[in-house]
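Reviewers of the previous submission asked for a worked example of the structure-prediction workflow described in the proposal, so we include one complete record here. The input consisted solely of the amino acid sequence. No template or homolog information was supplied to the procedure at any stage.
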Amino acid sequence: MANTNQARKRARQNIARNKHNSSLRSLMRTSIKSVRKQIEAGDQSKANEAFVKATSVIDRVADKNIIHKNKAARHKSRLAAAIKAMTA
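From that input alone, the workflow returned the following structure tokens.
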């Protein structure tokens, strides 16, 4: 257990920050899954709509350093490639 007031406050802040970051990470994963679901269903227009929303969420999470920018780029690239492959 934290011994100083400063350490106690940091522990409280870390708990709150972890909860907030976890919810954003969960939102990102859910948006990625929604795109994947539309791709599997074979509906390209809905997949594109979901991709636009997911891209926004992924960029937001990356800007807050919850995930690395390269990871965000990798997710967006793979989703875009999967949508593009639907036409082929």
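The chain has a mean pLDDT of 95. We consider this example representative of the routine output the project will generate in years two and three.
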